[in-house]
Amino acid sequence: MNHRERPIHHLDIQSLTKRFDPSSPPAVQDVSFHLRTGEILGLLGPSGCGKTTTLRMIAGFTRPDGGEIFLEGTSVASLPPERRRIGFVFQDYALFPNRTVLDNLVFALHRKKRAIRKGKARDLLALVGLSREEGRFPHELSGGQQQRVALARTLAAEPELILLDEPFSNLDAALRESTRAEVRSLLKCAEMSAILVTHDQEEALSFCDTLGVMNAGTLEQRGTPEEVYLTPRTPFVAQFLGRANLLRGTARGTTARTDLGDIAIHPAAEGSVLLSLRPEHLTLQPLAAARSRSDSPRITSREFRGHDLTYRVAFMNQEFLVHTDYTCDLPPGSAVALVPRRPGVVLQEPGLCRRG
């Protein structure tokens, strides 16, 4: 920005709200977040949670009922999509099937002078590593290559922000992993701010710098992937992002009395609490026959997962999931002790727990 101070946030979303049916709850309710230059944010949540509606309001395809959208310090909420300088990568790529890869990009550069279009298109193909494919048609490319062409076409418009709506969902598992790594690398190389919408937890954790978990139209938690995964704020976040064992207890400071005994908790709390323990944060200790009782925790199943083992353990009318490496190899029916390796995370429940 010339002759004035650059805004703190590249994108600033304030209290965005959308209701499609007056008799139904809002599709998006009071959603606020910001994005730094070069940051990749993931909006994660189940179908119908409001993530795609939020993306479409930012793009200008859906008009919000309330709230503000600032891009580089300028309000864009009332601007049509073509004036927002926001690129959108669709789930189906939306490439012209009867045009070559090069011609798809040349068409996207129609606002540029004719003399420079092909040169600019070839520069973009070089950026996404597809220079050798310029004469091929979309149906002759792999899904990952089509995705890179779609990204190059979006970059052709020189957007300030790129929005990606489930862009990898049509790819098979192996190709999906390599393609998202390539796309992330390209976005970082271009120092491009982006928002990814996905319901795939693994994709969000590996692709994004920050995550926003949405539920029933609201943004329940925002933070780095590590923060959101290791310290979920609510039962929904704990169970949607990976697997979680939920355990009730009575807290006093940094300790809670639970069915597993007295365990460390974070943050400090008082009174009745609901705790989250990730399966990989529990260990199994076999109990000798002399210490085993009829009500001891018992392994009900053992699942080989390639990179680890997953045990299901029945205890006190509850099933606990435990992930271990191969040093712990116990058969179903074994009596065990469940021992946390990390403090239990205190979850927020309205009117229940008081976190310190």
From TrEMBL:
Q: Which GO terms describe its molecular function?
A: ABC-type ferric iron transporter activity; ATP binding; ATP hydrolysis activity
What Pfam families does the record point to? ABC_tran, TOBE_2
Record InterPro entries:
AAA+_ATPase, ABC_SmlMolc_Importer, ABC_transporter-like_ATP-bd, ABC_transporter-like_CS, ABC_transpr_FbpC, Mo/tungstate-bd_C_term_dom, P-loop_NTPase, Transp-assoc_OB_typ2
Q: Which PROSITE patterns match?
A: ABC_TRANSPORTER_1, ABC_TRANSPORTER_2
Any one GO CC term of this protein is: ATP-binding cassette (ABC) transporter complex
CDD domains tied to this protein: ABC_Carb_Solutes_like
Under which name does UniProt file this protein?
Answer: Iron ABC transporter ATP-binding protein
Give the originating organism: Alkalispirochaeta sphaeroplastigenens
